[in-house]
């Protein structure tokens, strides 16, 4: 899959790839309760601020953590050991010596956290440095000038930066250690369930993990601002819907949607994914302090054992090319039927699917006719598959030969798996003269509606939703909107066998559109279309595979 | 037969051969004018070398180079490719009336039987990203040792890898630092992965902040597969005061057997090719360089032990400030590092 090369250097190219300018003040998306909880080192009091907690330990228990730390000159690991040592002494009711020495907590076992998700351990970095007064910025030499002084200041800054870098790398080592321990814990519940994902052949896994496509696909999806913004906007604008609720995220990927939900105030989020990416999601969630709200489960949603019987909301980004190719919608429907409360909410809630005939002589000459003369050779043989396979391309709106036709709506609250294969009628009227009908394109609009009872018209357009004044939000993957990673599904008509005929503006055409799953490959999708102009005796038809 | 061979392969290897089946990659390669036209010129402008010769096309793809060789007067061309694309090549060759001159064989070079014990010329477009990633050079060398006649020719016969340093703040921010703040969340684990893979992308000439230097030249007549694992030193000299965020690499390809030597470059100073350039981001944000500063480095490349089509690349570097010019404002900067990459 060749991605557009955004010019490695061009700042102008790079600047709007991730357009986060429309943040619209989502910083306030935090739930109204504080999320970090600092449990006292010496008793079971809980604080929302690290310094308050340390002050409490000092005032009530005469334990001055900062003093011990600077007295012993503790490094990063030393700090962690000290915290865990104190916690384990307190837990087991053992006394803490009045003058703690390094020997007391020398044992490596103190690297292991005593408390699960101990916020204190992740805030050690932020504690105030015990600042030694460096007199390098000496004023005596004022006459010689600020230059040298600022030079030595800069030098000091780079020293400090180097230290910081070291601390960061130590922290990341530590995080890995913690992760290993926590992983073991998380694996346990699924080990006695039917899903046993840890039998992955090690080598495949590592290959998959480090391969280009691996990071690329997640980067592509996250940087698809149309997609990610729509989920974010819905979740953050409807915090009341999420506050205190239990949410299931089907196919959580990197965990972004789960974190949106947690940040919006969900009491509990269960994130399920069958891919190895979930290990990264777990780390992301942990690093962002949501490990106590979000539970990651690796496996198929049909097979993993959820820690709850019912959920209030299912959020999922399941949409595939042409909406249903390699889509996880079957799994989402299964999860809905099994876990969603009767009055629960699906996010997103509706999909409107569109088809339109296209005429695009430039594309045809660049990619189809091209093969007839390659440096003087005829490579017609290379054309073969082009008309058999549906392609994924972003077509300009100018290629549309007629207005799009809404051929199907899926309402996620009610859609059944059997609705995902269908045959529907479609029609259109040419809005310009064309030399040839080159094919059809298919796309979908995705709607996020905060109420189960709200009706979305079958011909509602996402791009008109905001102006309609209705609740919720929507995005389109059509040629009129900002391009998404889904682009559009393009089905090219095989015009190579006989010379195509032209048609005039205003001519009517109609036919049927069918989605089917081939018997030999349930992952693939077959799209068939029939079409007939009014003046024709007989209709034309062709099928395309997405694979 | 071939499918059985594929079945016996490691998945990654089978994927390599299968991934070439799709049209897109062939369309892209044929539309890479620099590549295709240089090969065409090297072959057609040297008809005197091809006339009545037996030619082997290693990894023939759609068969375009084989057909150029016939146009240049070759007596016989044998094209070998492991991918199913060879079925298309066969159709294409027939359509262009060259079936009697070109024999196409699907299979691995190491396993197929050629009708000629010796060939006069080997042509091959074997280069991958960073010259050596997923490259077929080892196959070409095998074919050379087994089939090439004494004094036979190889098209092309020389490849040189270059390195340089670039200013790339904005894009590095977008590709690497992006993971620090994804919609307000920290995605550091994915940043690690992003830093562990070189980026193949188009670099523009204006961001080169050092001179470029050749680091390795492969002479296809003499090199061996052992030469494909190497550790070579390089030195880059800064042209101006600037930030260097990444080191980049590209390669030049030469056809020295030609009457008038023909070559092309995949560097940022020339028309773009589908190989683009390979970008190695530094772990530190950047190295600050002043004119005349030297970046001394070591480039190490070796095929991965588990999957020989993957590359393990290490680059170490150290800045040597230009001593001849005093730079009073210059901060003491720690400018050295060791970078580890995996291309897979």
UniProtKB/TrEMBL annotation, chain A:
GO terms for molecular function: histone methyltransferase activity; protein-arginine omega-N asymmetric methyltransferase activity; zinc ion binding. Gene3D superfamilies: Hnrnp arginine n-methyltransferase1, Vaccinia Virus protein VP39. It catalyses: L-arginyl-[protein] + 2 S-adenosyl-L-methionine = N(omega),N(omega)-dimethyl-L-arginyl-[protein] + 2 S-adenosyl-L-homocysteine + 2 H(+); L-arginyl-[protein] + S-adenosyl-L-methionine = N(omega)-methyl-L-arginyl-[protein] + S-adenosyl-L-homocysteine + H(+). Residues 1-34, 185-207 are annotated as: Disordered. SUPFAM superfamilies: beta-beta-alpha zinc fingers (SSF57667), S-adenosyl-L-methionine-dependent methyltransferases (SSF53335). Residues 21-34 have a biased composition (Acidic residues). It is found in: Cytoplasm, Cytosol; Nucleus. Residues 1-15 have a biased composition (Low complexity). GO terms for cellular component: cytosol; nucleus. InterPro entries: ANM3-like_C2H2_Zf (IPR049482), Arg_MeTrfase (IPR025799), Methyltransf_25 (IPR041698), PRMT_dom (IPR055135), SAM-dependent_MTases_sf (IPR029063), Znf_C2H2_sf (IPR036236). This is type I protein arginine methyltransferase.
UniProtKB/TrEMBL annotation, chain B:
It holds the Pfam family PrmA. CDD domains: AdoMet_MTases. Residues 157-320 form the Protein arginine N-methyltransferase domain. Keywords: Methyltransferase, S-adenosyl-L-methionine, Transferase. GO terms for cellular component: nucleus. One of its GO terms (biological process) is mRNA export from nucleus. GO terms for molecular function: histone methyltransferase activity; identical protein binding; protein-arginine omega-N asymmetric methyltransferase activity; protein-arginine omega-N monomethyltransferase activity. PANTHER family: PROTEIN ARGININE N-METHYLTRANSFERASE, PROTEIN ARGININE N-METHYLTRANSFERASE 3. This is S-adenosyl-L-methionine-dependent methyltransferase. It comes from Glarea lozoyensis (strain ATCC 20868 / MF5171). The lineage of its organism: Eukaryota, Fungi, Dikarya, Ascomycota, Pezizomycotina.
């Amino acid at each position: 899959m060749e991605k557009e090369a955004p010019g490695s250097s061009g700042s102008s190219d790079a600047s709007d790839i991730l357009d986060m300018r429309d943040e619209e003040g989502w910083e306030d998306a935090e739930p109204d309760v504080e999320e970090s909880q600092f449990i006292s080192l010496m008793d079971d009091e809980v604080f929302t601020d690290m310094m308050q907690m340390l002050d409490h330990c000092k005032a009530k228990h005469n334990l001055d953590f900062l003093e011990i730390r600077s007295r012993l000159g503790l490094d990063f690991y030393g700090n962690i050991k000290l915290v865990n040592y104190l916690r384990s002494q307190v837990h087991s009711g053992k006394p803490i010596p009045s003058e703690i020495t390094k020997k007391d907590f020398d044992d490596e076992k103190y690297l292991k956290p005593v408390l699960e998700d101990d916020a204190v351990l992740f805030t050690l970095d932020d504690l105030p440095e015990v600042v030694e007064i460096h007199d390098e910025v000496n004023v005596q030499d004022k006459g010689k000038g600020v230059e040298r002084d600022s030079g030595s200041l800069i030098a000091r800054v780079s020293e400090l930066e180097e230290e910081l870098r070291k601390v960061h790398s130590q922290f990341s080592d530590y995080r890995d250690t913690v992760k290993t321990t926590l992983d073991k814990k998380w694996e346990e519940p699924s080990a006695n369930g039917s899903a046993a994902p840890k039998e992955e052949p090690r080598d495949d896994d590592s290959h998959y993990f480090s391969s280009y496509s691996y990071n690329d696909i997640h980067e592509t999806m996250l940087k698809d601002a149309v997609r990610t913004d729509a989920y974010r906007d819905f979740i953050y604008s409807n915090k009341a819907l999420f506050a205190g609720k239990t949410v299931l995220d089907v196919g959580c990927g990197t965990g972004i949607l789960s974190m949106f939900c947690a940040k919006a105030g969900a009491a509990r989020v269960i994130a399920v994914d069958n891919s190895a990416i979930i290990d990264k999601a777990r780390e992301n969630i942990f690093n962002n302090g949501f490990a106590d709200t979000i539970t990651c489960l690796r496996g198929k949603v049909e097979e993993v054992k959820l820690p709850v019987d019912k959920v209030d909301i299912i959020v999922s980004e399941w949409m595939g090319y042409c909406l249903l190719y390699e889509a996880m919608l079957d799994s989402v429907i299964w999860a809905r039927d099994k876990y969603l409360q009767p009055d629960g909410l699906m996010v997103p809630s509706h999909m409107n699917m569109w088809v339109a005939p296209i005429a695009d002589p430039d594309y045809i000459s660049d990619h189809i006719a091209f093969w007839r003369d390659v440096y003087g050779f005829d490579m017609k043989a290379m054309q073969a598959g082009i008309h058999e396979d549906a392609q994924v391309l972003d077509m300009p709106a100018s290629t549309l030969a007629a207005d799009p036709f809404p051929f199907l709506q899926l309402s996620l609250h009610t859609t059944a798996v059997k609705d995902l294969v269908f045959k529907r009628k479609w029609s259109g009227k040419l809005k310009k003269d064309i030399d040839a009908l080159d094919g059809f394109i298919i796309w979908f609009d995705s709607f996020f509606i905060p109420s189960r009872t709200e009706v979305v018209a079958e011909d509602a357009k996402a791009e008109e939703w905001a102006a309609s004044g209705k609740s919720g939000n929507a995005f389109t993957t059509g040629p009129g909107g900002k391009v998404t990673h889904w682009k559009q599904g393009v089905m090219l008509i095989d015009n190579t066998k006989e010379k195509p005929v032209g048609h005039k503006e205003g001519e009517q055409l109609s036919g049927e559109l069918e989605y089917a799953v081939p018997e030999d490959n349930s992952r693939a999708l077959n799209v068939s279309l029939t079409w007939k102009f009014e003046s024709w005796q007989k209709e034309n038809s062709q099928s395309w595979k997405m694979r | 037969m071939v499918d059985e061979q594929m079945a016996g392969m490691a998945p990654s290897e089978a994927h390599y051969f299968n991934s070439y089946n799709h049209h897109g990659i062939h369309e892209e390669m044929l539309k890479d004018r620099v590549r295709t036209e240089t090969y065409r010129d090297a072959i057609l402008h040297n008809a005197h070398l091809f006339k009545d010769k037996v030619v082997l096309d290693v990894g023939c793809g759609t068969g375009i180079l084989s057909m150029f060789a016939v146009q240049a007067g070759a007596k016989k061309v044998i094209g070998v490719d492991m991918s199913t694309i060879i079925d298309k090549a066969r159709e294409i060759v027939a359509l262009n009336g060259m079936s009697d001159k070109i024999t196409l064989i699907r299979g691995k070079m190491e396993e197929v039987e050629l009708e000629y014990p010796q060939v006069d010329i080997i042509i091959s477009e074997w280069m991958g990203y960073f010259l050596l990633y997923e490259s077929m050079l080892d196959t070409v060398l095998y074919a050379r040792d087994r089939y090439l006649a004494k004094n036979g020719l190889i098209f092309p016969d020389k490849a040189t890898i270059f390195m340089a340093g670039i200013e790339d703040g904005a894009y590095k921010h977008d590709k690497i630092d992006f993971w620090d703040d994804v919609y307000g969340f920290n995605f550091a684990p994915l940043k690690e992965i992003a830093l562990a893979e070189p980026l193949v992308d188009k670099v523009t000439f204006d961001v080169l902040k050092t001179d470029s230097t050749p680091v390795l030249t492969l002479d296809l007549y003499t090199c061996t597969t052992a030469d494909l694992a190497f550790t070579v030193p390089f030195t880059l000299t800064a042209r101006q005061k600037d930030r260097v965020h990444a080191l980049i690499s590209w390669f030049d390809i030469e056809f020295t057997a030609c009457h008038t030597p023909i070559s092309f470059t995949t560097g940022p100073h020339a028309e773009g090719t589908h190989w683009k350039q390979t970008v190695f981001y530094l772990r530190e944000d950047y190295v600050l360089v002043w004119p005349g500063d030297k970046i001394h480095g070591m480039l190490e490349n070796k095929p991965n032990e588990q999957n020989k089509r993957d590359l393990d690349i290490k680059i170490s570097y150290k800045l040597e400030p230009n001593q001849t010019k005093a730079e009073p404002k210059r901060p003491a900067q720690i400018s050295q590092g060791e970078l580890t990459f995996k291309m897979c």
